[in-house]
Write a structure and sequence with these properties.
By secondary structure, the protein is α/β, with parallel strands linked by helices. It has ten helices and twelve strands. Strand 7 and strand 8 form a beta hairpin. It binds adenosine-5'-triphosphate (ATP) and magnesium ion. Pfam families: AA_kinase (PF00696).
Amino acid sequence: MSLIILKIGGSVITEKSSLSKAREAEINRISNEVASFKKDSDSQLILVHGAGSFGHPQAMKYRLNEGFDAKGAYLIHNSVKVLNSKVLESLNNAGANALPVHPLSSCLLENGKIIDFQVGQIKVMIEKGIIPVLHGDVVMDRIKGASVLSGDRIIPHLAIALNASQIGAGSDVDGVLDDKDAVIKKITHFSFVDMRKNIKGSGSTDVTGGMLGKVSELLELANKGISSRIFNASRKGIVSSFLYGEDVGTLISDK
Ligand SMILES: Nc1ncnc2c1ncn2[C@@H]1O[C@H](COP(=O)(O)OP(=O)(O)OP(=O)(O)O)[C@@H](O)[C@H]1O
Ligand SMILES: [Mg+2]
């Protein structure tokens, strides 16, 4: 059975320029698109959401990259969990069965790199038709004590570990844009060399590299032969189009 991994950016479901502000209407709209696809299809689905204004400003404040901060780790995790609960409630209200999976409790890092990720519970959930909902989180790190693990890094890891066939990251832009703000249809390892100068971080606070971080993570996945898409989840119907396998946004591919 085919497995889809969908990331919804914090730029879509939160107001990234505010502090801990969710966009409830956007969460509900996307939940409805996901739930109606799930009713219609027997594909398995994993959802990952970004932290947006529930994680990036907090991670910046407690400077996890500069040193361990136990209180900061607690406060960041607690904040992203609030957003995760809102997503879970919305999905279940829309008629999808969804359960949370917190990376803090299932994952271990070494200098920011994933060295252990428990997927046993995720496998049972997807077999039972439940959507596991992961999120960008603070995660224990054997070297740094604690680090931020982005949703963008979770997707390639799970895609490989669970052999996903369709991978997508929805953000607040129509795809990766060129110097004239036109959507780049495809990015490969080769074309990235020329395009890189136009791909930047985020317009808001983003501790995980914004669009450049996202493209870099997905290019690494493409190098392993797994393609993915970056598209606009803020536009009505695009999440649904992606789920049904349509050609949306920018394709990140190895050739
Ligand atoms: N070449 C580019 N094409 C498209 N967006 C770009 C580009 N360069 C920089 N960006 C910025 O990247 C932003 C998207 O990345 P950002 O990390 O803010 O969103 P996200 O990953 O959806 O959110 P989160 O990290 O909270 O999950 C866009 O809103 C845009 O400002
Ligand atoms: Mg981001």
